[in-house]
Design goal:
Layout lengths: L1 E6 L2 H14 L4 E2 L4 E8 L3 H15 L3 E13 L9 E7 L1 H13 L14 E6 L3 H9 L5 E5 L1 E6 L4 E7 L1 E4 L1
Parallel strand pairs: 4-10
Antiparallel strand pairs: 1-3, 1-8, 2-6, 4-5, 4-7, 5-6, 8-9
Organism: Natrialba aegyptia DSM 13077
Protein name: Phosphoesterase HXTX
InterPro entries: Cyclic_Pdiesterase
C-alpha cells in the first residue's frame, strides 16, 4: 500500500517516545510516526511512477504549511481495524487543503477520507477504552512545525519511497 504522508519533526517523535510507558497497555504501539494524508493503494513499480507523477502535478503549486499538535485523543470506533486508536490531534488547515486536493485527484476511501478525514498521528491501538480516555485527558504542550515536504510511503516495506517538496512560499 502506497500513501502520501506528512513527516513529523523530532519533537513530535520525542513526545510519542515520552508517552510510550502509557501506551504499552495497547496491543499495537506505533514505532514510526507521520500524518497520513491520502492512501493511494497497491501498485507495481511502473504504476507507482504514474502515481508519483500524478501527485506531483496535483501539488506542484502547493506551499509549505504549518501544523500543530494540540492534544491527545482517541477513536473509540474506527472505520477499520481494532479499537480504540489513540492519537495526537493535528490542527492544520493547510494539511486539510492538501488532503482535499489529493482526493480530487484520487478517489477517497469511504469512511476514512473526504469529509471523514481527521488529521492525526496514530500512537497505539487495540487496548482498553479507559486507558485511551486517561491519555486523552492528559494535557500536553502544543508542538508547531512547518511541513516543507511530503513523502510517498511504501507501507509494505515501511519506508519512504520518495519525497514531494512543497513550495517555500507561505499560504
Amino acid at each position: 500500500m502506497y500513501s502520501v504522508i506528512a513527516p513529523v519533526p523530532g519533537r513530535v517523535r520525542k513526545l510519542a517516545t515520552d508517552l510510550h510507558p502509557e501506551l504499552v497497555a495497547f496491543e499495537h504501539v506505533r514505532q514510526t510516526h507521520s500524518c497520513l494524508l491520502k492512501r493511494l493503494g497497491d501498485a507495481t513499480q511502473a504504476q507507482f511512477g504514474h502515481l508519483q507523477r500524478k501527485t506531483h502535478r496535483a501539488l506542484e503549486n502547493t506551499a509549505a504549511v504549518d501544523a500543530t499538535i494540540t492534544g491527545i485523543d482517541y477513536f473509540d470506533d474506527p472505520p477499520i481495524g481494532s479499537a480504540p486508536v489513540v492519537y495526537l490531534s493535528v490542527d492544520s488547515p493547510g494539511l486539510e487543503a492538501i488532503h482535499a486536493e489529493l482526493i480530487e485527484t484520487f478517489d477517497p476511501l469511504d469512511d476514512l477520507e473526504g469529509d471523514d478525514y481527521v488529521p492525526h498521528i496514530t500512537l497505539a491501538r487495540d487496548g482498553d477504552t479507559a486507558t485511551a480516555r486517561r491519555l486523552a485527558d492528559r494535557e500536553i504542550d502544543p508542538i508547531t512545525w512547518t511541513v516543507t515536504e511530503l513523502e510517498f510511503w511504501n507501507g509494505t516495506e515501511k519506508v519512504p519511497a520518495s519525497r514531494v517538496p512543497l513550495s517555500s512560499r507561505s499560504l
